[in-house]
Amino acid sequence: MSADPLHPPSPNPASGRTTARTAAVIPAAGRGVRLGPGAPKALRALGGTPMLVHAVRAMADSRAVSLVVVVAPPDGALEVKSLLDAHALPERTDFVVVPGGGSRQESVKLGLDALPPGYDIVLVHDAARPLVPVDTVDAVIEAVRGGAPAVVPALPLADTVKQVEPAAAPGDPEPVVATPDRSLLRAVQTPQGFDRVTLVRAHETVRDDVTDDASMVEQLGLTVVTVPGHEEAFKVTRPLDLVLAEAVLARRRHNDGF
Ligand SMILES: Nc1ccn([C@@H]2O[C@H](COP(=O)(O)OP(=O)(O)OP(=O)(O)O)[C@@H](O)[C@H]2O)c(=O)n1
Ligand SMILES: C[C@](O)(CO)[C@H](O)COP(=O)(O)O
């Protein structure tokens, strides 16, 4: 049968397959240098529970997610395994823990390598985004099921953005060279969702250091699309973020009657 030019084959093998199985990879091997001294960031407490446990629950809360691969600090896989065993997690979800690498990108690749066959859709979610709502997770999965090979949750920017040149000497002011059109800029979050074949190809092909997985798919020349992100999916990066995360969690618990 010859190819139909009006209906080319979908670039996404998971397209339209509402039964496609979904796994989440959670890179959690970072130190959290910007958060300040202490345990590895993913293991620090938020509302008395390690941030990583919140992030794992956020993925497992989606009924579509049946496997979560946690990428632990390189020497902390056993500790992370015990931690997950000690916390109540949904029984319908399987968990795998693997040691991570020296960069986020390496850690995600190690998580992908540990994925068993049979999962066509893969989410990549930062342990450092413990409060992402399940509706955001499900919106990402739906968009991948709908045919997009790569999907990112995104929010408009609240601040005006300036492009600068490096300062002439440390401590000197940086000259502003441009003010990009803010209406066309987005801050992207996780989970980012992918058809598995595309994500594996991106990690095998792209050698540049990048800060998110979607940009690797962009480098393959494929289209990445956005779905609405959520303010509560923010990344705990600096100390003030942890204060905000505690406040958001306390409000949720109050609203839920805990
Ligand atoms: N070698 C690394 C580095 C980062 N990550 C993970 O990637 C996510 C990205 O969040 P980020 O705030 O960049 O985490 P850190 O790298 O830990 O932060 P910092 O740069 O402040 O050390 C985190 O869940 C982090 O654990 C990882 O799995 N492996
Ligand atoms: C993946 C990410 O969270 C999307 O916003 C972000 O790029 C991670 O960047 P970081 O420099 O590792 O914090």
Automatic annotation (TrEMBL):
This is 2-C-methyl-D-erythritol 4-phosphate cytidylyltransferase. Catalyzes the formation of 4-diphosphocytidyl-2-C-methyl-D-erythritol from CTP and 2-C-methyl-D-erythritol 4-phosphate (MEP). The record marks 34, 41 as: Transition state stabilizer. Belongs to the IspD/TarI cytidylyltransferase family. IspD subfamily. GO terms for molecular function: 2-C-methyl-D-erythritol 4-phosphate cytidylyltransferase activity. The gene is ispD. The record marks 182, 235 as: Positions MEP for the nucleophilic attack. It comes from Streptomyces pimonensis. It catalyses: 2-C-methyl-D-erythritol 4-phosphate + CTP + H(+) = 4-CDP-2-C-methyl-D-erythritol + diphosphate. Its EC number is 2.7.7.60. The lineage of its organism: Bacteria, Bacillati, Actinomycetota, Actinomycetes, Kitasatosporales. It is an enzyme of class 2 (transferase). It holds the Pfam family IspD. Keywords: Isoprene biosynthesis, Nucleotidyltransferase, Transferase. Pathway: Isoprenoid biosynthesis; isopentenyl diphosphate biosynthesis via DXP pathway; isopentenyl diphosphate from 1-deoxy-D-xylulose 5-phosphate: step 2/6. Transmembrane segments: none annotated. Gene3D superfamilies: Spore Coat Polysaccharide Biosynthesis Protein SpsA, Chain A.
